[in-house]
């Protein structure tokens, strides 16, 4: 059950970082690790693919050092969702932390 809650937090982290700059899988795994989320590529990439399928993220590929790296950036739909999520998070934190 706790894993389900954390998956929601992970998605929020991904949208947050993708709103700042394009992100890629290994960077996200390392960034999320700093927050205590231990993710394997087998867990992260399905999340990224689902966020892309739901139009919250858009991907593109670039050649980096002779290797193709897939980047993800937030879409306008993702920005709208993140804004709504932040509003609900503020409300929840105020209520829970009283």
What keywords describe this structure?
98 residues, alpha+beta, Arc Repressor Mutant, subunit A, three-stranded antiparallel beta sheet, 4 helices, 3 strands
Shape: globular
Largest sheet: 3 strands, antiparallel
Question: Can you write the helix and strand succession as a string?
Answer: HEHHEEH
Under CATH, the homologous superfamily reads Winged helix-like DNA-binding domain superfamily/Winged helix DNA-binding domain
Number of domains: 1
- Amino- and carboxy-terminal Cα gap: 24 Å
Give the quaternary arrangement of the chains.
single chain
Poorly predicted runs of 5 or more residues = none
Radius of gyration: 14 Å
CATH fold-level topology: Arc Repressor Mutant, subunit A
Query: Roughly what percent helix?
Result: 55-70%
The helix/strand class is alpha+beta
% residues in beta strands: 15-25%
Number of helices: 4
CATH class category name: Mainly Alpha
How many DSSP-defined strands? Answer: 3
Biggest sheet: strands side by side, in what order?
Answer: 1-3-2
